[in-house]
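Field log, afternoon session.

UNIT: design team B
ACTIVITY: writing a sequence onto a fixed backbone
BACKBONE:
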């Protein structure tokens, strides 16, 4: 089975989704749906670290890559997320090269990084550190979220960081950094996204986007524009949208 890192390097589009509800049954159901990866969201959810590890276990048990979106760039938070045995981390609000370098360093052990050594699930609780160390250097994934206008200004420097496997647009915060949260079609916001796409194409770096509302057409549109790391929907929306659609049809007698 190809690793997530090798899939990112292949140039082919890969598809995932987002988890915000801390129940391993939900993650298990979604992991069996055919996604390439699932992201456990620890930035905008009530999921704690022990719950995140259970979700990671249930995802990986289905042969699907698991990522954790950490709450911020704190190296201790990144280290503890990686110690759950996750395939990699998504780090929010990367605005410049120094922050991207620090995120990568927090994932890797010296001499390639600054991460402290612990013996948790990732290291098979002390019985697999050497194997994990080799795996990490070869397969550990780091994705940075581009969600501030300063990040777009510094994009070439960010994309040039060794060990950063890809980036993705955070559209809500990117538009919010200009004072227009959620207004993606404003020309000033569209201009930033156009620059992101142009620079990524020129530097041959994988582009990412989270289509929050599960819209197949939008996902395919982004794929046609060259996006390779695509997340679609999230657990609560899949649950809420389908239940609403079902009840609406029932009430209408259909």
């Amino acid at each position: 089975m190809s690793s997530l890192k090798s899939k990112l390097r292949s140039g082919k589009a890969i598809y995932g989704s987002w988890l915000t509800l801390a129940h391993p049954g939900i993650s298990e159901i979604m992991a069996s749906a055919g996604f390439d990866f699932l992201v456990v969201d620890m930035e905008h959810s009530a999921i704690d670290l022990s719950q995140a590890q259970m979700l990671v276990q249930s995802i990986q048990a289905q042969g699907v890559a698991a990522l954790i979106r950490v709450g911020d760039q704190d190296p201790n938070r990144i280290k503890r997320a990686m110690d759950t045995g996750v395939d990699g981390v998504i780090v929010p609000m990367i605005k410049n090269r120094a922050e991207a370098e620090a995120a990568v360093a927090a994932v890797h052990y010296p001499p390639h990084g600054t991460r402290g050594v612990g013996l948790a699930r990732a290291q098979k609780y002390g019985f697999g550190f050497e194997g994990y160390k080799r795996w990490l250097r070869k397969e550990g994934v780091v994705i940075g979220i581009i969600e501030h206008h300063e990040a777009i200004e510094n994009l070439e420097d960010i994309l040039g960081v060794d060990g950063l496997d890809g980036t993705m647009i955070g559209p809500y915060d990117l538009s919010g950094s200009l004072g227009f949260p959620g207004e993606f079609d404003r020309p000033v916001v569209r201009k930033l996204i156009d620059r992101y796409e142009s620079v990524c194409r020129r530097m041959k770096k994988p582009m990412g986007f989270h289509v929050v509302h599960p819209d197949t057409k939008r996902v395919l549109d982004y794929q046609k524009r060259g996006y390779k790391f695509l997340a679609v929907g999230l657990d609560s929306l899949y649950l809420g949208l389908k239940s609403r659609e079902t009840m609406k049809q029932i009430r209408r007698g259909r």
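LOG NOTE: Residues 180 and 186 are 8 Å apart (CA to CA).
NEXT ACTIVITY: expression trials, pending approval
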